[in-house]
Request: fold
Amino acid sequence: METVYSESNSAMPEPSAAALAGEPQPSPWYPTYKESWAVLGWYLLSMLPVVVGAVGLMQWLPKSWQTGVMLLLGTLMQVALVLWLRRRAGPRLAPVAWSGPYDQTWHVPLLLVLLTPCLAASLAPLTWLHLPHWGVDKTFDKMLQTPALVLLLACGAAPVLEEWLFRGTVLPGLVRNYGVRPAVLLSAVLFAVFHMNPGQAAPTFFIGLFLGWLYVRLQSLRVCVLVHFTNNFMAVLALLLSKKPYGGMESVAQTEPATLAVIGVGMVLTALGIRYLHGLTRPAAFSAQLPTGRDLMA
Reply:
């Protein structure tokens, strides 16, 4: 009999009769807790060739090209990493839902596009923590000198690759192994650590929680990419229009009353939007057992 998880079921399934009888059990879905943290290790290792190659190229590339070439190399390496991880997982890889029942009509995607700036406004107070950016701000400032490159990487490649990795590869297996709540939480933590930047990691963690919950509720990776794209596009557009350096922070005392009002309205609308989506959708059913036979061929 198949075990099905819901959002309230966050524990490991009870041992089956076969397990109690000592019969061999199927391998867990990919990834386990240990394997999910190893994803970050593989990512760091994959960046070593990028760093080495960038150092060599910088000897003869024009200075204005150096940041762009390094970021393009990094993006290509991320593509290779995701493909390699999925191939390495083999039949243990949980299927990913690229499109679900709730993104077939126009109103749910439109709601998410409108909800994303509200979520971003809700997270604005995190800048008051004055967390360090570890030099990432300088890289972003250099990228902003070539807007086309920023739009290509931050708004095109990043949403697709990062959602494919964290919500399409890591999250489904964690949910099937450990339940929804610990899986969404761990995937959000990994998503935040992946950015290697405390100033970026704080809001990224909460966005990761929302995206993980969204994937479980809407059963669609496509809507996660849409939200990720909208968030990044708004951030890039705001930086380009304001012409302020990336990572600029202000204290709550320096924040204008109008900005505080926007933050408050954003929090209210975010809560209402999440409540509406919660009532509109239902969590996906995730099997606790590995598929066999023709299921592995699907």
